[in-house]
């Protein structure tokens, strides 16, 4: 059964998605993700043997599952066909072009400059510290409008 876009989404039994990344250069990764990207530090811990961790708040979390055909299509649109990593991290931001420029200045390798996608977002792709492939996306239309266009559906329960 399809819900309309105004319905309340079902409550998830999962309370938080935490992506755990090992960063050989911890300080560079922290400077990039906390300081340049702007993810607020929620907690940080230090332990014996120079053990360090910082937990950064990345806002709402979703898990995007795509089949191989969808991944190829995204790669074509977003990065001129360059295949993406098996796991790619995507951050929604307000100023996609400005934030991309800031992250490149902070050490990211630009894979694809910001471009408008058929699903009406502005996407860029880069290789970032801690050996992560990152997409930045800025939504250019609201979900209610998007759900009315061909190929898009409203959330289901």
TrEMBL record:
Pfam families named among the record's database cross-references: Glyoxalase_6
Q: Which residues form the VOC domain?
A: 15-139
Mind telling me which Gene3D superfamilies this protein's record contains?
Answer: 2,3-Dihydroxybiphenyl 1,2-Dioxygenase, domain 1
Name of this chain's protein: VOC domain-containing protein
């Amino acid at each position: 059964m399809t819900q309309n876009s105004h319905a309340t989404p079902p409550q998830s039994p999962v309370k938080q998605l935490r992506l755990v990344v090992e960063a050989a250069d911890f300080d560079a990764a922290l400077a990039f993700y906390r300081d340049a990207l702007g993810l607020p530090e929620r907690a940080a811990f230090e332990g014996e043997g120079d053990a360090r961790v910082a937990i950064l708040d990345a806002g709402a979390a979703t898990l995007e599952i795509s089949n191989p055909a969808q991944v190829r299509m995204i790669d074509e649109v977003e990065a001129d066909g360059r295949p993406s990593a098996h796991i790619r991290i995507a951050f929604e931001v307000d100023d996609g072009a400005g934030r991309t420029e800031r992250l490149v200045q902070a050490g990211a390798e630009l894979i694809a400059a910001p471009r408008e996608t058929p699903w009406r977002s502005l996407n860029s792709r880069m290789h970032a510290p801690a050996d992560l492939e990152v997409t930045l996306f800025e939504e250019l239309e609201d979900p209610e409008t998007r759900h009315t266009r061909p190929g898009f559906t409203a959330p289901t329960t």
